[in-house]
């Protein structure tokens, strides 16, 4: 080799090593995912199918939902193969779920895809699976992952104010005849909890359609579109209408705060923890996206996944990037916090999200008793 060529090669290697030494490095990951496909939450009074049409019962994870979560676990394994150890290491990951069968089962199946046991972890040669802890707290005590929180008086006051808005009232007047028709078709009395019942009807019909069950004659494509439109507006009334920051402080802001505090804890204590996983609901992801001002009014699909990635920058500062996967056939796409770049400097991310993070949730909620379980681990 000519001396000049050798010098060029050595210089190129030096530049590559220099770039590697000064590259951004992944330090910590938080993953939130919706449970997989499930049976309807409920049936309406005149539903011809009822619970008998669902092998595992209402609200339960289906086999399709299990497959979705297993695939998500495999996706996370591919995405973080360079970051997580090849085999399960208890000090690297912490998993928490809401206390519902479908989210607990989703977490377990997801972990089966993320951590297939290697040869030393195979406790049974015929079973390619290993038990991995999934933590939870009772629903009545969950202040972190289940929204809206029922025992938050101020939140209910805010929703009562929202219902009185001219925009809200005009929408309801426009849907009045349709809602009356739904009452006749379903057997529901629509006087109280009207939008909640409309959502239940839509959820039931949507689940039945996805599983090739016959729909009643009145459940036309136009009817389903209107039910979806009403359901979307009902969600928007929680997230994007009336005192949105205050609502976020009582819901999704709690989760944003926990995500940031967990990373701070990992750094301050030099913990080996690399990933926290939360198995949650569509309402959890919606509340989170509302607090982050990235909610696009598209409903989180089954196994939808929101990812926070925390990096150590070459100058020893930290940054955070967000990714969202709402379609299992596609790669995650980047979410950018309004007012920042991506990855967002952590100090800027904290500053921009400060308005939606509660200082004292009990006081802001007008609760007489202190709350618990707002962070993990």
From TrEMBL:
Keywords: Glycoprotein, Hydrolase, Signal
Signal peptide positions (record): 1-23
GO biological process, one term: lysosome organization
One CC-aspect GO term: postsynaptic membrane
Protein name: acid phosphatase
Molecular function GO terms recorded: acid phosphatase activity; protein tyrosine phosphatase activity; receptor tyrosine kinase binding
Pfam families reported in the protein's UniProt record: His_Phos_2
Enzyme Commission number: 3.1.3.2
Catalytic activity annotation: a phosphate monoester + H2O = an alcohol + phosphate
Hydrolase in keyword set: yes
Gene name in the database record: LOC117368685
Organism domain of life: Eukaryota
InterPro entries per the UniProt record, alphabetical: Acid_Pase_AS (IPR033379), His_Pase_clade-2 (IPR000560), His_PPase_superfam (IPR029033), Histidine_acid_phosphatase (IPR050645)
Enzyme class: hydrolase
Family: Belongs to the histidine acid phosphatase family.
Species name: Geotrypetes seraphini (Gaboon caecilian)
Family matches, as SUPFAM superfamilies: Phosphoglycerate mutase-like
């Amino acid at each position: 080799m000519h001396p000049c060529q050798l010098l060029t090669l050595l210089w190129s290697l030096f530049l590559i090593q220099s770039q590697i030494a000064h590259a951004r490095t992944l330090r910590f990951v938080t993953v939130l995912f919706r449970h997989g496909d499930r049976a309807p939450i409920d049936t309406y009074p005149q539903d011809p199918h009822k619970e008998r049409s669902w092998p595992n019962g209402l609200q339960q994870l289906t086999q399709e939902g299990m497959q979705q979560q297993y695939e998500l676990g495999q996706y996370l394994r591919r995405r973080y193969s360079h970051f997580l150890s090849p085999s399960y290491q208890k000090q690297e990951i912490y998993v928490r779920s809401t206390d519902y069968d479908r989210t607990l089962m989703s977490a377990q199946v997801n972990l089966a895809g993320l951590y297939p046991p290697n040869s030393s972890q195979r406790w049974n040669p015929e079973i390619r699976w290993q038990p991995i802890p999934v933590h939870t707290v009772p629903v009545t005590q969950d202040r972190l992952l289940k929204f809206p929180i029922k025992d938050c008086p101020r939140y209910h006051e805010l929703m009562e104010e929202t219902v009185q808005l001219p925009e809200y009232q005009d929408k309801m007047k426009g849907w009045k005849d349709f809602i009356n028709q739904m009452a006749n078709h379903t057997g529901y009395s629509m006087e109280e909890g009207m939008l909640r019942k409309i959502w239940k009807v839509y959820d039931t019909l949507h689940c039945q359609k996805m599983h090739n069950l016959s729909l009643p004659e009145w459940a036309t494509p136009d009817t389903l579109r209107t039910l979806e439109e009403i359901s979307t507006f009902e969600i928007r009334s929680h997230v994007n209408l009336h005192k949105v920051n205050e609502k976020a402080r009582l819901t999704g802001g709690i989760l944003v705060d926990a995500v940031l505090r967990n990373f701070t804890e990992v750094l301050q204590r030099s913990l080996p923890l690399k990933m926290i996983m939360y198995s949650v609901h569509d309402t959890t992801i919606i509340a989170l996206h509302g607090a982050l001002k990235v909610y696009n009014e598209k409903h989180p699909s089954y196994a939808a996944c929101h990812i926070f990635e925390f990096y150590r920058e070459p100058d020893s500062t930290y940054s955070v990037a967000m990714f969202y996967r709402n379609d299992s056939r596609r790669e995650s796409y980047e979410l950018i916090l309004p007012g920042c770049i991506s990855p967002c400097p952590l100090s800027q991310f904290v500053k921009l999200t400060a308005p939606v993070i509660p200082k004292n949730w009990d006081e802001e909620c007008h609760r007489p008793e202190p709350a618990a379980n707002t962070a993990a681990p």
